[in-house]
Amino acid sequence: xxxxxxxxxxxxxxxxxxxxxxxxxxxxxxxxxxxxxxxxxxxxxxxxxxxxxxxxxxxxxxxxxxxxxxxxxxxxxxxxxxxxxxxxxxxxxxxxxxxxxxxxxxxxxxxxxxxxxxxxxxxxxxxxxxxxxxxxxxxxxxxxxxxxxxxxxxxxxxxxxxxxxxxxxxxxxxxxxxxxxxxxxxxxxxxxxxxxxxxxxxxxxxxxxxxxxxxxxxxxxxxxxxxxxxxxxxxxxxxxxxxxxxxxxxxxxxxxxxxxxxxxxxxxxxxxxxxxxxxxxxxxxxxxxxxxxxxxxxxxxxxxxxxxxxxxxxxxxxxxxxxxxxxxxxxxxxxxxxxxxxxxxxx
Length: 347
Fold this sequence. Notes:
The protein has helices at 6-16, 19-24, 27-34, 36-41, 52-58, 75-78, 111-126, 139-150, 170-179, 196-207, 221-231, 246-256, 265-271, 285-301, 308-315, 319-331; strands spanning 63-67, 86-91, 100-105, 130-133, 153-156, 181-184, 210-214, 235-238, 260-261, 306-307, 335-338, 342-345. It is α/β, with parallel strands linked by helices.
């Protein structure tokens, strides 16, 4: 209904409890809540039919519509000041109630930034956290990819769920719908518009226990997400970088303003007081192979601190695979991440 926005819907729900009660209320009472003009325009009853496209979309497997009164609507998000009155969900709606960590950052990320985002996301997902991000290019994409390799991921998008933006992430969006969830507050058919992205960010931070920023310029939208997280009482984490890189300046500002400086996965888990018991060893051949590769990497490291590029030379592994293995070993307490990008075997 034109003119009936999020704030008005929130006021109606707070006053009357559910939409049917609001629509049945006397016009004079409605006018006190949303003003005389909106009160006069509201229909008196719920219409028996909805737009055909909405019904067709809901009939497809995995598609859900969660009003804020639905018990599956995530409790953490419901508690923020400007909670969306409804969510469109494609995938697993129950994931929205699981413990989440947001990982966000620059759309124009460096190769190292993308590797860091993917490696952190993978290890944090393996630790049992659901990784939430915004499906944007760069850091968001790397975070989703890493999380899906280790567990579950949720993407909050700034379009209708029948659209994918950017188009280059279409295949990733399909995987997220199959292995996690896509979420939006916007009606079907809504195209990407600039003002929708900052509003989307409040949902990303609102769903999460905390937000980790990986590479951000001073005008990055990721800083908006971090600010919203702080206002919502969430933890804020930032990965430091080179003092000469514009992509480090946003993270360094966050750290100066009180964000937790993060060098390894344990920094995040300890701040969240996340209790995680590593899963029992997998007796399958895949599990044995992974253990063998990690043991071989420990042998290659030797007793002294060693930089990542040296380990690439010694192991023949890609930087992405090596980073994921090192973070897994950090979680097991077998490797320490040292200043200067060095790693050391602990035993």
